[in-house]
Amino acid sequence: MKTLTLIRHAKSSWEHLGLPDIDRPLNPRGQRDAPRMGQRLKQAGVSFEAIIASPATRALETARMIAAQTSFPEEAIVIDRDIYAAPVGRLLTLAQRLDDALERIALVGHNPGFGQLASRLSPAFRYHLPTCGVVRLETDADSWRQVQPGSMRLIDFDYPKRAD
Fold first, then answer.
1. Percent of the chain surpassing pLDDT 90
2. For the segment 17-45, what is each residue's pLDDT rounded down to a tens digit?
3. At 82, which helix (H) or strand (E)?
4. What average pLDDT does the segment 53-66 reach?
5. Which DSSP state fits 148?
6. 3-class DSSP state for residue 129?
7. Which helix (H) or strand (E) element contains residue 69?
8. CB-CB neighbours of 26 under 10 Å
9. DSSP category for residue 51
10. Number of C-alpha atoms within 13 angstroms, CB side, residue 34?
């Protein structure tokens, strides 16, 4: 069984308008939300064998905060440039190329690609993916290469403003 967790980066800052998009950090709300969502994942018994993040500052900050709360070593976070500004087709290909030795993987990145990927992989996901939203998908497939549109089950969808 394979579990893919898609995590949209937490709320980012627009304070420095001249800053390149890739360098935008989290704003104070994002800095509160990311550890909170990591704590919710931990309380739900979620753990990861890999966390793969976009190189964007806001995605890396989110990944590090989630990792800290879920006891995943920060130094083991993998940065994948293909996640940044990726269209849904590229994200699907990335998912299909994940290491088959790993069962529980988190990807940390951006909309619109992540929301589109979630709805493409699971017809049950028909929602907007807000900042720091977490979508957990599952398949009985033995290989990530078998992941196709509609082939995964939605097992959880959580986000910071969801009632506890």
1. 95
2. 889 999 999 999 999 999 999 999 999 99
3. none
4. 99
5. -
6. coil
7. helix 57-69
8. 24
9. E
10. 26
